[in-house]
Design a protein that fits this description.
Layout lengths: L3 E10 L2 E6 L2 E6 L2 H6 L6 E11 L2 E7 L2 H10 L7 H10 L2 H9 L3 H4 L7 H11 L19 H12 L8
Parallel strand pairs: 3-5
Antiparallel strand pairs: 1-2, 1-4, 2-3, 4-5
Helix pairs in contact: 2-3
Length: 167
């Protein structure tokens, strides 16, 4: 499983980035906010990766911030939301606003995101309301004080199914 990529940014588009690591170019699907925060082409970039595997597809979804990756992974646990729709949600509204809308039962605000209807928004609120961080607490606690290696290890453990606090 690929959990983190660090390398030279070869290309970037609003929904895609190509990162070269050890001579291999990885095509990574990204959200619009991640695209906006990416450095210039040709510079080094580090992305937190969610590897999505289906029988006919292997896709990498990249995030600059661990909190966005965590929200993405929570979104895809909701019935009816796959990785593409989760990226659309993160592109349609800032991550902290998505968390606030879910915690506040703001279905109307969630339905303004393209691809999210009333039933999907209600499912998001119902299934994720208690899994969202409390207002005022960081959505990825203790990550900011960690080195890159420690962030990689934490990300890998979370991807393997460990709770963030235990990892």
């Amino acid at each position: 499983m690929i959990a983190h990529l660090r390398g030279k940014l070869l290309a970037k588009h609003p929904n895609q980035a190509v990162v070269e690591t050890a001579g291999v170019g990885y095509d990574v699907i990204i959200s619009v906010p991640t695209y906006s925060d990416l450095p210039a082409v040709g510079t080094e970039v580090a992305l937190h990766i969610h590897t999505h595997v289906r029988e006919d597809l292997l896709a990498l979804y990249g995030f600059l911030r661990p909190s966005e990756k965590l929200l993405f992974e929570k979104l895809i646990t909701v019935s009816g939301i796959g990785p593409k729709l989760a990226i659309t949600v993160l592109s349609g509204m800032p991550a902290q606003d998505v968390v606030g809308a879910i915690r506040g039962n703001d279905v109307a605000r969630l339905t303004r995101i393209p691809g999210i209807g009333k039933k999907t928004a209600e499912r998001m609120v119902l299934e994720l309301r208690d899994k969202m961080p409390e207002p005022g607490t960081p959505s990825a606690p203790a990550v900011s004080g960690m080195s890159a290696v420690e962030e990689d290890v934490l990300s890998a453990l979370v991807n393997l199914g460990y709770q963030r606090a235990a990892a």
